[in-house]
Predict the 3D structure of the following.
Amino acid sequence: MVRDHHLAARHRPALRRAALRPRNGRCPVSAAPRGAGRPAVVVVGAGPRATGLIERIAANAPELYGDAPLDLHLVDPYPPGGGRIWRRDQSPLLWMNSLPDDSTLFTDDTVEMAGPVRPGPSLAQWCAAVRSGGIRVTPDVAAAVAALGPRDFPGRRLQSAYLTWAYERAVAALPPRIAIHEHRRRAVRLAGPADGRQQVWLEGCPAPLTADAVVLALGHLDAEPDAGQREFDRFAKRHGLTYLPPGFTADAGLGGLRPGEPVLVRGFGLAFIDLMVLVTEGRGGRYTEAVEGGAGELTYHPSGREPVLHVGSRRGVPYRSKIGYEPDAPRPPLPRFLGPAEVDALLARPGGFSFDADVRPLIEAELGFAHYHRLFAAHPERTRMPWPAFERRYAAGDAAARRALAEEAVPDAADRLDLTALDHPLAGLRLPDGDALQDALRAHIEADLTRRHDPAYSPDQAVFLALLSVYGQLIRIGDRGPWWHGFFSYLASGPPGPRLRQLLALSRAGLVRFLGSDTTVTADAVTGRFTARSATVPGAATPARALVEARLPEPTVARSADSLLRALHADGAAATPAGLLAVDPADGRVLDRAGRPHPRRFALGPHTDARSGGAFTRPRTNAPAFRQNDASARALLTFLTERAAPPAARPRTARTATREDRHAADR
C-alpha cells in the first residue's frame, strides 16, 4: 500500500506539480492566481502541523466540498513538510526524540473524528518501504535508512525526509481543482473584518494575499526577551560576556562558548541535550565503548575545543530517559478517572473550576490507576491482595486513602507511585560540595537508565500511556497552568537512553558539571561575571563569562517574536492567563476577548491553549493533534461551502450546529 500511495503521488496531473513550485523570493502576483472568484485559504506555517491540516482537507473535501475550486496558500520561509524545526538544514548529529515506530503523521481507527481515516506509513514503515525500493529517495537518505537499527533513534534529517514525503503525498491527494501555492516568505500582518475576506501581508511584498479564511499553524516561535533576559543581555554587553536567551538550540550562535571555559546552563531538558551534542561531538569529540561482562560504558575523547557545561534547573536532574523495552502486559483501560464524562462535568460547572483543586487530583488518580493496573497484571507476585479488591478501594478513596492502600498492598516502596518524589527528586537533599553532587547525580542518572530499560518496572510504561491519555482529555479544558506541561515533558518527553549514557561519559570526563536543584543565576557587578548557585550545595557559587538559557521560549502571544501573532493579540484576540492564544476547542477558531469565535481565523499548535503533544505522534493513540486537524479542516470546508451556497440551500452543518453539538462530535 505504501508503494501505491507513492506512485499516485508521482503521477498526479501536471497542474499539481506546477502548483508545488515555490515562489521563493517573488511576491505573489495577485491574491487569486486562477481568477478573482476562486475561494482561497492562507495557511501560515508549512511544518508538520500544516501538512496534517492539508491531509485532512484532502480527506474531507469529497464529502464537504465536492469538486469546487480552491487555492491553498502556504506561507513559510522554510521548506514545506519539515518547516523550521524539522528542516533538513541542521546538524546531522541531532536526533529525533522518538523511535521510528513511534512517529506517524497519518490517522488510524483510534482517532475520534468525523472525517474518514486515510492510513499512511509510520516512519518505521516508510523506512521499510525505502529499503524495499517501494519509495525512492536521495542517496543520502537511503544511506541513513540503511544504517538505522530497529532500536536506533533517527536523525532529524531523516525525519525531515519523511515529513517532506508526507507533505507531497497530502498535496497529491487533494482534489484536482484544489491548488497549492507556496510562498517562501514570512507572514507579517493579518487584517480583515469578521464578515469579509482577510488580508495577509508577506514580508517585503507591497500587496497582501487575500483569502476567505486564514489558519495559523505557526509551530514553535521565537520570543522577545522578558525583563530579566534583557537585563542579562545588557550586563553581558557591558562586560564582554556571552548570553544566549531561550531559543531553538540548532539556530543558536554557539561561537561565543570558548574552549575550556565554564558555561552556565539553565535548563536540563531536550534543549540542553542538543547543546551538549553540538559543543562536544559537534566540535570534534568522539565516544568509544568498552564492553566488560556484557555491559558497556562510554568514554568520551575530547577534541580540546569543548567548553565545560555547568548545568542546573529547578529539578536539578535531566528529563527521564525514554523507555527501552516493549510492553509485557495489556494496556491499562484508559481513561478511567479523567475521561469525556469528567471533562463534561468540569466544563458544565456554573462557577467554573480550579485546575489545581479539581483537575490535578483526577490526573494523579489516572496515573496511579495505570501504574497499579500494570503492576498487578504483569507482576502479581509483588502485591498482597487481589486486583479487584485493590481497584474497588482505589476508586472509592481520596489521595490519602490511595497512598495508605498502596502501602498495604505493595510491599516494596520502589513499586509504589510517588508523583511528588518523581517531580522533585532532589527535594531536601543537601550535599557538602560539588564533588559529592557529581557522584549523586551520576548515581541518579544510572538508576533512571537501569529502571527505564528493565521490563520488571513496566508500570512506568503504563504511566506514560496514562500521560498521553490525560493530554488528550485536557485539550478540551484549554489553558492548563504552568505545572502540567512541564511535568508531562519531564516524564514523557525525555531523551533517548544513549544520550544519557553520553551525558554520564561527559560528566566523568569533567566536561559537564551538575549544579543541583533550584538553580539561580545572578549578574555579579563586582566580578563582572554570571554566578550560579543552587539549593543542593548551600554556599557554593560558580562564576562564568557565558550563560545559556537551554529551553524553548514560552509561547506567549504578547512577547512572541512573530509580529503577526502579536498584532493579532493587540487587535483583540484573546489570550489565556498563561499568555496562550485562546481558541475554540471544537474547531480551533480564534476567540476574541468576549469569547466569540472568529468565523474566518483558525489557529493550531503550541502557541494556542489547545496545544497538543506534537504535530506527529505515536500510532494508535487517538492523537489530539489529528483530532484537531480534522475538526478544523471540516470547519474550513463547511464555511467555504456555506459561503458559496445560496442562503435557502444552506444545510445545518458543523458550522451552524450548537457548541454542545460540536463538543459531542469532537468526543
Summary: The longest strand covers residues 286-292.
